[in-house]
Amino acid sequence: MEDGLILDGVMAQDINQASSFWRIREGITEASTKQGAVYKYDLSLPVEKLYDIVDEMRERLGQVAKVIGYGHLGDGNLHLNILTNQYDDDVLAQIEPFVYQWTSNHRGSISAEHGLGLMKADKIHYSKSSETVRLMASIKKLLDPNGIMNPYKVLPRSLLAN
C-alpha cells in the first residue's frame, strides 16, 4: 500500500478469517458460471500492470459483459474472467486477439499457472519467440516421441507432428 500498488485491502487476523477469505475467493468460479458464459484467461503480468487489463476490458466491452479479475498479487498472476449471458462470436472478437496482444505489449504471458491448455496452444507466439517455441517443440519430441504426455496442451499441433 505504501508503494501505491494496492488501493485497499484486508489481512486476515486469524485462521477463521483466512478460511472465510479463501471460501470467497474459491467461490468466484462457481458464482461466475451463474451469469451464463465465462471467457477465461490466465495471465501473468508485471505487478504494476496487473489490474489494468481489467479496466481496459471493461471500457472496451461496456455493458455487453461483466469483467472481473482476481489472482495472485505476489507472482503477477491474474485470472481475467469475462461474463456474458451466452457465448457470442461478436463478444469473442472484441476479446481476442486483443487480450493476447495487450498482454504481450505489457511484457506478460498468456499462460500462467494453468498453462495454455487445448484452446490456446496456437496462441503461444504472443508470449514466446518463434525460436523459443521451436526449441520447446524439439525438447517435447525428444522427451515424448509418441506424443502421449499431455497431448496438444502445450504447443501448436503443427509443431508436434512427426
UniProtKB/TrEMBL annotation:
Tell me the ranges covered by the FAD-binding oxidoreductase/transferase type 4 C-terminal domain, including all copies. 2-154
Q: Which InterPro entries match?
A: FAD-bd_oxidored_4_C (IPR004113), FAD-linked_Oxase-like_C (IPR016164), FAD-oxidored/transferase_4 (IPR051264), Vanillyl_alc_oxidase_C-sub2 (IPR016171)
A GO molecular function held by the record: flavin adenine dinucleotide binding
Domain of life of the native organism: Eukaryota
Q: Which GO terms describe its cellular component?
A: mitochondrion
Q: Name one Pfam family in it.
A: FAD-oxidase_C
UniProt keyword annotations, A-Z: FAD, Flavoprotein, Oxidoreductase
Gene3D superfamilies from the xrefs? 3.30.70.2190, 3.30.70.2740, Vanillyl-alcohol Oxidase, Chain A, domain 4
Entry protein name: FAD-binding oxidoreductase/transferase type 4 C-terminal domain-containing protein
Taxon lineage: Eukaryota, Viridiplantae, Streptophyta, Embryophyta, Tracheophyta
